[in-house]
């Protein structure tokens, strides 16, 4: 589904990713962990054109999406690969329903009634149906983040990327967002998730990838990485997030 092939990324003289090779298969939930500043965000941002590799290639469904690609190819990436960030970036002057409907209407040319029907369905699934007419600032952080997830899902993506989606939330709101993400994972969505939420990784992670100083130091099942890590640096990191 997604592949980074020999990806190296430099910012000026600073090499942030060193020869990264990573494949994400259909239906997998790949969890990326690692210390702050190790390159996790830079890595995941290569998967939807937010960063370009200095060398190497990024592929989506076996087609190269890095380098100069056509507008049409870029649009294909934007339609098929959704992303949710740490800071829920909802449009503040739009209602929840308008937030969800905006891209499907503009990009996919859905009619208002089609878009309304779709947003109602998605809101129902996430138990947020009664918030359709609310504005973002009338919602809790957890609710806003769940709306941000729904907004991405409204494009019917093939893959969902998450970069520390719960790390800006108050502790009591983390669970509701993780619950939505688990539901999505169990529905078969292909996901790449930067998170230190071990419970999430253990319950739905197919694979955990440990990134350290721009290298993939090791990867394996959640059990292998959390309980039987091979490298001291991995063990040391895990002991801090346990
Ligand atoms: P993580 O998400 O693991 O905390 P990042 O991918 O955000 O790590 O950052 C990895 C390194 O790349 C850091 O040293 C950071 O300062 C640097 N970096 C990230 N983005 C940029 C940028 N746009 N320009 C320059 N340096 C950057
Ligand atoms: Mg980051």
Automatic annotation (TrEMBL):
**Alphabetically ordered keywords of this record:** Amino-acid transport, ATP-binding, Cell membrane, Membrane, Nucleotide-binding, Transport
Single GO molecular function: ATP binding
Enumerate the subcellular locations listed in this protein's record, separating them with semicolons: Cell membrane
User: Where in this chain does the record put each ABC transporter domain?
Assistant: 2-238
Extract the InterPro entries matched here: AAA+_ATPase, ABC_ATPase_HisP-typ, ABC_transporter-like_ATP-bd, ABC_transporter-like_CS, MetN_ABC_transporter-like, P-loop_NTPase
Keyword Transport set for record: yes
What is the membrane topology noted in the UniProt record heading this document?
Peripheral membrane protein
Do the record's keywords include Membrane? yes
Family, per entry: Belongs to the ABC transporter superfamily.
The name this protein carries in UniProt is: Amino acid ABC transporter ATP-binding protein
User: What species is given as this protein's source?
Assistant: Limosilactobacillus urinaemulieris
Please name the taxonomic classification of the source. Answer: Bacteria, Bacillati, Bacillota, Bacilli, Lactobacillales
């Amino acid at each position: 589904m997604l592949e980074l092939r020999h990806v190296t990324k430099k910012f000026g003289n600073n090499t942030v990713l060193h020869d990264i090779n990573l494949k994400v298969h259909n239906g997998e939930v790949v969890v990326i962990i690692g210390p702050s500043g190790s390159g996790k965000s830079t890595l995941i941002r290569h998967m939807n054109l937010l960063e370009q590799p200095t060398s190497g290639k990024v592929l989506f469904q076996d087609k190269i999406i890095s380098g100069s690609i056509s507008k049409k190819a870029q649009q294909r990436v934007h339609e098929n690969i959704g992303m949710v960030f740490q800071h829920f970036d909802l449009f503040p002057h739009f209602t929840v329903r308008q937030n969800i409907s905006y891209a499907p209407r503009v990009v996919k040319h859905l009619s208002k009634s089609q878009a309304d029907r779709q947003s109602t369905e998605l809101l129902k699934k996430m138990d947020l149906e009664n918030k359709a007419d609310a504005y973002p600032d009338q919602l809790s952080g957890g609710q806003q983040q769940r709306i941000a997830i729904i907004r991405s899902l409204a494009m019917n993506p093939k893959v969902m990327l998450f970069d520390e989606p719960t790390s800006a939330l108050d502790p009591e709101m983390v669970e509701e967002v993780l619950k939505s993400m688990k539901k999505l994972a169990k529905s078969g969505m292909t996901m790449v998730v930067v998170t230190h939420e071990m419970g999430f990784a253990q319950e739905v992670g197919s694979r955990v990838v440990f990134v350290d100083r721009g290298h993939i130091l090791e990867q394996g099942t959640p059990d292998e990485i959390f309980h039987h890590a091979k490298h001291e640096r991995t063990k040391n990191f895990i002991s801090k997030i346990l």
